[in-house]
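Let us work through a complete example step by step.
Step 1: write down the sequence.
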Amino acid sequence: MAQGRFAIPVALSLLLIVFGYVAHALWIGYQPDDSYITYRFALSLAHGYGPVWNPGGKPVEGYTNFLWMVLLALANRMGVEIPLAATVLGLVFGSACLVLAWMLGRRLGLSPWWALLAPMWLALSTHFAAWGTSGMEVPLLCAGLLGMVVAYDWEQARGRGLWLTSLAALTLSLSRADGVVLVLTLAAAHTCWWGFRRQDLAPVLALGACYGAYLWWRHGYYGWWLPNTYYAKVGLTVPALTRGLQYVGGYLRGEGLLLIPVIVPLWWRKAGALRPPALLCWGWLAYGALVGGDFMPDYRFLVPCLVVGLPTAVATVARVRLARRKALAAAAALPVGVWLASGSLP
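Step 2: predict the structure and record it as tokens.
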């Protein structure tokens, strides 16, 4: 963790932040009705009927969070009630996000104390804490994303094969159906910026084989390559894009303003390790606009942007000196443009 005489104080501070997050999440106590959809599939799986809505009925994939559903089913098999298991696991993965956010800050060059800023804000953020007890897959998805970014930076720095990155990417892809978008974004960035290395071949093939096996099972069991909810809700239309721009614009007018510095690494030559998490943050914002946003409160769909964007924003501000005021002014152009465009849409 932190080095020298600051190790214990930093560790205690991070532990205090985690306790604060758990207390905040429990105080909110949010549990939407949608979580019970996954609960029902998990209950059927735990009782031996398979991941179905009605035991004995035709299989329909009414969930989008395969790994989360399996974890809840396993907990129920061990005698734990599914709502309780969902709350505990949500708080555990949410707490893991705080630790991983600190680790990402350290990987991006922040001091042990400055790296605490991102997890501190996450613990205080209602947009993040609300999902800890929601029974939904959001904390697992965010932990998988942060784990992938931290592992990627660590393995890149040491010139190793991307085994840990691939493992985290598989977790991310199975956490929610569109998690694969984040994995493909990082893969494309890696190939464009650094090229494909020979030592990456084996882990990438292993990742592809595991995810391919899952897709093959999904198609064989449900008859479709994508979840039923995708065909029912997602459509690349002008009204959907309008809703998406309004959704992202509303976010950028609030807590999303903290992500403005994350634009700098997208074009700054000296960005280095800041670039992959910055691309993931803004790439996911663009994806959120493209698919029409989300109907649930607290910007559920954009929480991954927050968890990976906050450490990157703090690290970017720490590296950009006052002499680069023009760079900071340019960095504000894109979110301001989105803000104005969203506000002008009917």
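Step 3: interpret the result. The chain has one domain: 9-220+234-344.
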